[in-house]
Amino acid sequence: MSRIGKLPVALPSGVDVRVEGGEVLVKGPKGELRQRILSDVVEVRLADGKVMVDRKGEAKQHRSAHGLTRTLIANMVEGVSRGFRKSLEISGVGYRVAKSGERLNLSLGFSHPVAFTAPKGVALTVEGQTKIHVDGIDKQAVGQVAADIRRLRKPEPYKGKGIRYEGERIRKKLGKAGKAAKK
Q1: pLDDT digits 0-9 by tens, 69-105
Q2: How far apart are the C-alpha atoms of 74 and 11, rounded to whole Å?
Q3: Structural domain boundaries enclosing 97
Q4: What's the chain look like in SS3?
Q5: pLDDT for position 35
Q6: For the chain, does the N or the C end have fewer beta carbons within 10 angstroms?
Q7: Nearest to 43 by CA among 64, 78, 17, 70
Q8: What's 65's domain CATH number?
């Protein structure tokens, strides 16, 4: 039995969950999310304020989908009640970000500024000139947008310049001068 799959998902106040055909619909104060489920593999049911996920067999596909389905539903419930946030930091001389309307204008050491527009359902906020916050109710979309922004200028290993997640540690390399001094 899946340890994660057998845990019930508690519903906070203000969150409504419905199972319609092969979809789970979650509504809350921050919005509404839909997720298709494998209805021939797992069964989603509501029991006294909790969502339970049961699998219909013991095959590998049934066991795999059990924990995954429960985690997806738990992320949806958390997203519509509290939301998700990923923060990015920009480091480097002359590297900065500014927000104009719904777009981010990033100066990342290229010969031109880079413009980034977030997809619908994801909000971008700028704190100072070196912090970006990505907010939304869909965990996958928030993570993907943060990864797309980071991909614009990954942190390089010699000086650590670039865009990194908040709290991410960059393993720095020594370079030519450091190698010669070591010998």
Answers
A1: 999 999 999 999 999 999 999 999 999 999 998 899 9
A2: 9
A3: 84-165
A4: CCCCCCCCEECCCCCEEEEECCEEEEEECCEEEEEECCCCCEEEEEECCEEEEEECCCCHHHHHHHHHHHHHHHHHHHHHHCCEEEEEEEECCCCEEEEECCEEEEECCCCCCEEEECCCCEEEEEECCCEEEEEECCHHHHHHHHHHHHHCCCCCCCCCCEEEECCCCCCCCCCHHHHHHHC
A5: 94
A6: C
A7: 70
A8: 3.90.930.12
The pLDDT of residue 1 is: 57
Do both 72 and 38 map to the same domain? yes
Q: Is 171 a domain residue?
A: no
The C-alpha atoms of residue 24 and residue 35 are separated, in whole angstroms, by: 5
Q: Which amino acid is at 33?
A: L
Contact 16, 66 (CB under 8 A): no
Longest dimension (CA), the chain: 69
89/136 same-domain check: yes
